[in-house]
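Margin note: ligand = flavin mononucleotide.
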Amino acid sequence: MMPPRPIPLCVAPMMDWTDRNCRYFHRQISRHTLLYTEMLTTGAVLHGDRDRLLGYEAAEHPVALQLGGSEPEALAAAARIGEEWGYDEINLNCGCPSDRVQSGRFGACLMAEPDLVARLVGAMREAVSIPVTVKSRIAIDELEEWPTLVDFVRKVSAAGCTRFIVHARKAWLQGLSPKENRDVPPLRYELVYRLKSEFPHLDISINGGIKTLDATAEHLKHVDGVMIGRAVYENPYLLAEADRRFFGATEAPPERHAVVEAMLPYIERRMKQGAPLGSITRHMLGLFQGLPGARAWRRHLSENAHKAGAGPEVVVAALAKVRRAPEADVAA
Ligand SMILES: Cc1cc2nc3c(=O)[nH]c(=O)nc-3n(C[C@H](O)[C@H](O)[C@H](O)COP(=O)(O)O)c2cc1C
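Resulting structure:
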């Protein structure tokens, strides 16, 4: 089988943020950037409400399902379900440091157990024919960064994983909160670059603190792909030039207003399925970041989307406020 082509840009899995509404919105801005789900535990996938947890619209493709777990059979079964639901990739979370995740012995603590991760990846690969990938840190706790990373990637790639997304900082499982673990440990991009040069046949993506497409282009001189999380969530229109810059597209991206208009039929559809307006618009608040009207947009949605009976007309009214906004109304 031919290895899948490297993916130059993807949006990070983010719990509570990258749900289906968020992904559909991001997809209106970039057709090609790979999108990730929030992490779903094997328990949720195997025993939970699958329509609610796994449901999405075909327009979201390409979309990768991120799983959290540490048992080969459960991960294999959850991966199979993900493939049946049409996801394009199954990703194993080996980077998330939260307590809840540690107690289940998965997430970042798996960085200390590369042999187990190799078994997990092997079991998932046997269960599905779509790519199985791993998102990791560079190390955890007292473990030395480079030897830990190399040993991890060597063992896990021997089990057939060919795509790694590396958040280029350690996670400290005790003493730092999950949020601090995304900011406090220093970024060591050079270790991820070195990983690519030692394992040139692997598809290596870099993650952590990357905020612009210019920075993405710089990283792509050293690695195959970039994963961006918070910067895209806060400033989603950042994705607009991605298709032309990194995926060979020739057409111009949609204007912000067109993105909003493309969301209106979706909002109607999802509200008929029971989704509250605010569960969709909350992901759209940053769309006009840095432009006149950004504040009026954000404020109108925040103040009105949760009111009883609110529907797509709230979004239309917010857009009208952007169009009328004075130049000075830029604060985001
Ligand atoms: C709100 C939030 C939730 C996150 N949830 C997950 C998750 O479910 N799985 C995961 O692997 N990483 C998760 N992360 C980490 C991100 O995927 C990413 O690795 C991290 O934010 C660093 O990238 P950034 O600096 O571009 O944001 C989360 C990050 C944030 C901010």
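The pocket of flavin mononucleotide is lined by residues 12-17, 38-39, 66, 93, 95-96, 135, 167, 182, 207-210, 228-231 (CB under 6 Å).
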